[in-house]
Amino acid sequence: MHQRLANALSYNEFKIFYQPVVDLPTGSIVGAEALCRWPTREGNFNPPETFITQAETSGFIVQLGDWVLKTAVEQVRAWQERFTIDFHLAVNLSGRQFLHHNLMKSIEEAIQKNRYESRLLEFEITESVAMHNAEDSIGIMRQLKTRGMSLALDDFGTGYSSLAYLKRFPIDKLKIDKTFVRDIPEDSNDLAIVTAIIAMAHALGLKVQAEGVETSAQADFLRDCGCEFAQGYLFGRPLPPDEFEALLEQSSAA
User: Fold this and answer.
1) Could you report the per-residue pLDDT of 172-195, keeping only the tens digit for each?
2) Separation of alpha carbons 33 and 179, rounded Å
3) Which terminal Cβ of the chain has fewer Cβ within 10 Å, N or C?
4) Contact indicator for 197, 176 with CB cutoff of 8 Å
């Protein structure tokens, strides 16, 4: 599998799709999350949760993650110049990437090569990654913060986080996992959980972004609760670059 992944990277088989992130109060697109996809010969896609896990296990995720970062920064920089907008790019960091000694060098290379403003780059880290070695994680987060980048804690509420550490993590945003968003506003338990997460985040001075928003009712509830950002099929599926660019054109013309 490691060799298959390496060959796929060598032959440019991997693609990056972009899912829009919207500002809930205004409904405008303010950024995108970069998501890696691996097409099959039959025209479908290998399940991301499968090949990403295999890449992580084999250690190949460091090379793949570096490619995703540099390719996405280059693409988003081109969109910035074309549409003259401040456009935030969110990139996921796996456990191996996050703790790899070459992380800062790769980030600096991507930023400097494309003259991309570090304040517009956001790294998403899951609870499990952050808590694997919490003290080391805090040190790495602080290095990223001192370089002007922002940090989001992904899949919040699904891992094994400690609230004692949450207040120490130098993060900017909590992302509410889609499992809590899926059944709102009908499910009273999910309503209570989402409301509590938003209130806690704001009390800690953090922004909130909801994942998996698929209905107007969900978006309205989240907006009324003060959730600042959202992503999900209601606003757009993960799209290849040409389709995402068309979405930006449509948004800018509105």
Assistant:
1) 999 999 999 999 999 999 999 999
2) 18
3) C
4) yes
